[in-house]
Amino acid sequence: MVDFFPSASRFGDADKPREECGVFGIIGCETAASHTALGLHALQHRGQEAVGIVTTDGDRFFAERALGLVGDTFADSTVLARLKGSAAIGHVRYATTGETILRNVQPLFAELAFGGFAIAHNGNLTNALKLRQQLIDNGSLFQATTDTEVIIHLMARAQNASTVVERLIAALKQVTGAYSLICLTKDSVIGVRDPAGVRPLVLGRLDGKPVLASETCGLDIIGATLERDISPGELIVLHTDGRVESFFPFDAVASRFCVFEYIYFARPDSDLNEKSVYAVRRRIGMELAHEAGINADVVIPVPDSGVPAAIGYAQAANLPFELGIIRNHYVGRTFIEPTDQIRHLGVKLKHNPNRAELKDKRVILVDDSIVRGTTSVKIVDMVRQAGAKEVHLRIASPPTINPCFYGIDTPSKEKLLASNHTLEEMRKYIGVDSLAFLSVDGLYRAVGEAKRNKEMPQYCDACFTGDYPLPLVDMTPEQKGKKRKALLHC
Amino acid sequence: MVDFFPSASRFGDADKPREECGVFGIIGCETAASHTALGLHALQHRGQEAVGIVTTDGDRFFAERALGLVGDTFADSTVLARLKGSAAIGHVRYATTGETILRNVQPLFAELAFGGFAIAHNGNLTNALKLRQQLIDNGSLFQATTDTEVIIHLMARAQNASTVVERLIAALKQVTGAYSLICLTKDSVIGVRDPAGVRPLVLGRLDGKPVLASETCGLDIIGATLERDISPGELIVLHTDGRVESFFPFDAVASRFCVFEYIYFARPDSDLNEKSVYAVRRRIGMELAHEAGINADVVIPVPDSGVPAAIGYAQAANLPFELGIIRNHYVGRTFIEPTDQIRHLGVKLKHNPNRAELKDKRVILVDDSIVRGTTSVKIVDMVRQAGAKEVHLRIASPPTINPCFYGIDTPSKEKLLASNHTLEEMRKYIGVDSLAFLSVDGLYRAVGEAKRNKEMPQYCDACFTGDYPLPLVDMTPEQKGKKRKALLHC
Amino acid sequence: MVDFFPSASRFGDADKPREECGVFGIIGCETAASHTALGLHALQHRGQEAVGIVTTDGDRFFAERALGLVGDTFADSTVLARLKGSAAIGHVRYATTGETILRNVQPLFAELAFGGFAIAHNGNLTNALKLRQQLIDNGSLFQATTDTEVIIHLMARAQNASTVVERLIAALKQVTGAYSLICLTKDSVIGVRDPAGVRPLVLGRLDGKPVLASETCGLDIIGATLERDISPGELIVLHTDGRVESFFPFDAVASRFCVFEYIYFARPDSDLNEKSVYAVRRRIGMELAHEAGINADVVIPVPDSGVPAAIGYAQAANLPFELGIIRNHYVGRTFIEPTDQIRHLGVKLKHNPNRAELKDKRVILVDDSIVRGTTSVKIVDMVRQAGAKEVHLRIASPPTINPCFYGIDTPSKEKLLASNHTLEEMRKYIGVDSLAFLSVDGLYRAVGEAKRNKEMPQYCDACFTGDYPLPLVDMTPEQKGKKRKALLHC
Amino acid sequence: MVDFFPSASRFGDADKPREECGVFGIIGCETAASHTALGLHALQHRGQEAVGIVTTDGDRFFAERALGLVGDTFADSTVLARLKGSAAIGHVRYATTGETILRNVQPLFAELAFGGFAIAHNGNLTNALKLRQQLIDNGSLFQATTDTEVIIHLMARAQNASTVVERLIAALKQVTGAYSLICLTKDSVIGVRDPAGVRPLVLGRLDGKPVLASETCGLDIIGATLERDISPGELIVLHTDGRVESFFPFDAVASRFCVFEYIYFARPDSDLNEKSVYAVRRRIGMELAHEAGINADVVIPVPDSGVPAAIGYAQAANLPFELGIIRNHYVGRTFIEPTDQIRHLGVKLKHNPNRAELKDKRVILVDDSIVRGTTSVKIVDMVRQAGAKEVHLRIASPPTINPCFYGIDTPSKEKLLASNHTLEEMRKYIGVDSLAFLSVDGLYRAVGEAKRNKEMPQYCDACFTGDYPLPLVDMTPEQKGKKRKALLHC
What is the nearest CA distance from B162 to chain D, expressed in angstroms? Predict the structure, then answer.
């Protein structure tokens, strides 16, 4: 799908499941801040609205946070020069708004009894509201409005714990939900992945020193080599001398990695769980061609996210693949459409039909997912106005019928098109000659499984199936969109 | 080719022929400024460093100029609201530097004896230095350092002319070189294309009112329909009521449209001279496959400019097309590489190998052109380190051996790799298993000619052939890079 | 004395006891934010480096904080428009530096269990460091580095208290030191003055609604009438309907108002404790003339702070009063002196000799105090170079020999000129023909007392006498300048 | 008088004749830019809205221009570092508004046939509009809207002249009006004062190198010694080696220095024509006491400009001088008064009554001049509300009844209170018990003349007498305020 009305976000597509966050950490590296900036630049697709880096020289801590892209602030060597020290962690996130803006930009930092502590979080805690109220009742003062701050307060109160790692474990044992964390103390970088391993986190090496990143593309950009994925439930402590300690402090639960990372979130050149994201997407396109093939002249992707699946579809269907829609990557700040006359042009800000490839053609259009469906309507209309004879829409994922509570910003159930409409209703609404989604089992085949294991699904696929693997304490799917949401997550 | 060291330009590729400029104009439209901003946004690929819009309400003129992308400044409705009036022209340009920055951002504006006059210019005047000195000797005061300012001074001195159009014609009859101009007076928008028609300029209609743009993609974004290309040597006057007057005030010469617009400059979804740019590029890839086919496993484009030719190559060669290199479009300000350790990572800021598609493969790499060749070396190295077994580089244009003097910022002859090296020397320098360029006749076939007409070439191809169709008064190819360049062009 | 090297502060005189802070509050006023901005503008002399305003509409709270002068930020009606509501408090403070800048700008704000709470503080808590450590040991997380934050954490922990006023009292009973506080809750403005009443705080009325300000000039600017000084140890609650409740929750102690407010800090047009500051200063000048008269031609003030005392001196001595030194009030940002050649010109940035009034004259120079003495040296040198025949320096206060711990930023004991030198040593160092300070009893006479009551001094005069009325828990005078200062105060 | 409504200008008093401009130049000095910044800082009272400096290293020219105070921009050593070279000129000016802002900030710079040339101007050309139209008719292109630009165009056209000095003389021979100019060429600084010497210009020496400034306070701040005033009609060329050439290229006319410089414009510590400004103002106060003495308790100045005259008045009348009105010098940006409630407080932004010195007193209030009179009304009302028993207003100049055309921004005739009202009408309007102005002869006595020479007045006093010494080509006093004013002057 496509960003017809990009008012909410500079780069994010409004009708997409909005991105979550990206985290990065490095230790024992003289240019820790620069490498962190580059790592975050590679992870920019995971959050375009705010970025922060905290470093330490083993004594003092240095922090810089800003709204906007990594390159807007951290391409400046004078900014990087202020970030002294050989250990650094960083964070990119999607929109924070209003007065809360600066206080919520991560990494969060606090002076704890044992010294300075910074934390960067990708995911969402499902009992943060409840814990927050308990802490306030006991005299804790909250500064920001993110779920992540709960972890720091729990650490400050964990007075029986004798080390920072023990305090962190004590705090995390009280939270539920999804998290990949990277933390900074004065002499270590700590990584943690929640017991179900919902969000990704990988360990790499650069000149013998350990590096953590949300995805492998964050390692590639600095020339680091991938060592391994952090395991679900693993807590890892990186030391300046390159030593890495591994702990498994939590009760073991079944692994439930987010399957949507493969479909849309992750960069195609990343490997997640030793699988190439690009290859999975191409296989998705192939499965789609097998499940929902149709006679046509050309396969056209909705750029950029639909490209790998469209290539796979074209190869499986033995049809020509062409760039029938051209994406304008120059954006700057969001255009504000001042008049109705301009507003209806919205879709054109990012996409333009390549008429010569559409006119009089029977077109198979491949997109990754449908959320609200509003943008699909406009893309299809644009393709039709360019002269396409037939338009067949193929979606590279199953119908999205449930909101996410584990780190992805999705609309409430009633706003999800597939949650309230039949396939035929959707086809008519979008205005295509045919519409097909990938099946759930087709998706599992594309990621290399024989099929979905119903007793113990191999992935978190709650958005497609409603099967939520982790407890929902603060809010139920029914409350989503009705209850006033109190905390930002990441 | 690829931007390994993007220090000079935010988006521009340092080892590319740098882009020129884009122009846009509209009249009789209540949202003239907004539409101009959108038109320039669609033309952003023609110049990313500065942007300006001038409007008129028939009495006063309003101007806003800024460095950066269109969307950085003109997405703001308060800025647009200051640009009152129903006629507007705009301009995007590549880098201007130093103190001259603001004075050189176009459109230029002057109060002439007949009233306000604004001018936006794409191209390069080849006798501007000489004219400028004559004007200074006669008491004219220059404010900026662009060639375009010469035109305004010549108009101010054209005291025999009784109308603004006559003054403009009198001025243009004194200049040589390439130009597509859009000008604004208090009651008209004027477009002019030089007699050889080197640079593009198209006329469209929106709700009956005329629109001018460098390329058709500038019409598409606002929903305007293409009426026709402005002819070489044509001067066209657009009126508020939609009336269009056409003049041919110059002596006729043979048309010599810039062939490089098809190869690299124009957007693939534009039509130039009624030819689809995308289709020309795909045919170029097909010609290249026929001229220089080789056994391989996969065809990989250097994104984004190499993609259409790679698709064409893959189709003609019946090989799989895959995204083996992923481009990161998030840029922000240019990263300044502070240390050697970071500097060698430069290429990674924009491109990352998609290892799964390269490892153990025989790769055909398709790029649009080679200028200095420095970046090709790094892209190829990146592909090899990702595990490619063989790398065969195919260039979608003939060898670039001469600088341009008609509106494109190219390095001097001695810096052009192909100007000083044999094919085998280039192959070794870049480090590929084989290297091939498209032939000049292959290029002409791709644009639909049987072959290049040596007596009267159908296009300006001076960069490939050294055959300069327009007089070079201020500077010869040999002086380029030695003579201190006095004027910016666009 | 005079600011020869204004490097630390835009307006503050580096060789002065640096100013402390100013506070303002108003309730029941539709233009609460505008009036607060004006009140702070009138209190600008109490702090030029940062300013903040917090308002409430009875439900939400609105905050704006900035570095610089009140007028730099709050003259802008769009900023004021964001500060909704009919109750507001504000704060001006002297320099905060480094990364702590934004977090330390007051009013501080916190969401407490009973709702939002903002606090603005003039003074210094003398046991804040000790309390802070205890709170951290119990799991409180501190965000800023001001002593004021301790009060909020103590309130958050005061879980036995049932109202916000009870919580505030419970917190204040644990602190020692000097404070005039203005706090904001969703339905009240609260003012408190410490039991000894070291810092000023006055109550006024505007159209029947109560107003609080550090000095009466803060009332004058908005047209409010002075009702009375808040009493030492009084806590006062202002309600929207104009009602004012008064409490005396602390054990009574003897009143010890800061006598330096009369000498230098307060504005001359303010009344403190029903005494005109201007009149006190003129009487100081008169006492000085009686105690240390000398034959001369003219009395010259060091502007601006020496002017009232010089007028009094001239009247008592029956000598002409002339502006022999002209002060340049245009400042902008501090000039950074790049070279030695420029640096020695430093004194001239603010002061220029008025030669015609100095040349060949016997000059009595009147200044308010001597701290380090470095600037006196330069002022005197300037006056001598302008041709003065004799220079007699008269200081409108006793010798400053001790640092302040109650809200004024003074250097440590070893940096105070009078602490380590005899009168004759000082005279030689400064280079004057004669030097005299006001006596302590002369100072008490000027404020209307017969003399200083040694058993129970009527004022806090610790800087002159070493008699500190309030306990010094965190730091002794001997530790000042040696112990790393942990907290900012105001 | 006083700035009740400071909406137009940050520091300027709206009901004052607005200030003109200040100029500075230095050559042969390694820190030319820094010294120029300091000199302009000392001349800041002559223009607070914009500032510019141009320097040369003998080859290239460097320029920095900014809105705001000198210290806002030029206190920054990185800005100064960009201003390379040992020769510099600078300019401060009052408000420029709208889009013209940046183009009109002086010094103006142009590349002329003989090389770069910068010009800074204090004064006003009275035939600039006429000359400008002639130049436009002949093909000159104007960039700014100041009268000064005419001089540069005339120089560009002076093709018979062989040197830059000859070109400048040729240009100046065509203009009428008042000007003190400082110009910069690549190897000299040139100073010129118009034949009547309306505006001041002084020559000083620093370490043997020549310095030019509008007033002597501009010399004092950098430690330069006054050498002499530039004579009316003198053109002076300063060389790097310290050599000074003097020319008198114009026909001699009678000297007519602006007497208002003594009354209000110049700084009190400056000497103009070897007279101390402060001493003249004190004598004005003395003359005023003799001419218009009255029984009273205290003499109160309207600060700051009324202070020296009030001191003189008090001395002559043997009455106490007291600061009965306190001025707040902290300003920042202008406060915008959003509501009526706030607007009527306007006067309080800068002035507050010192009640103890006004209550129950018979007050003689001394101000320098009355322009519109609106602010006098408010000051007097403020003094009365503070309890003054009687208020007697004494004005330290004759009634202002005519606008200035020689460099001072005054309102048109119908807006000048004294132009349309009798003394008694004015007394009632302002609301004082008595009102008196200084007589014209009293003013001449204060500046050291026996009386005004009616045949050949010693000063330009057109604002008081209507006797305009220089031709008014572009506009007559009657046209002022009606004709659309085309050019800014300085």
Answer: 13
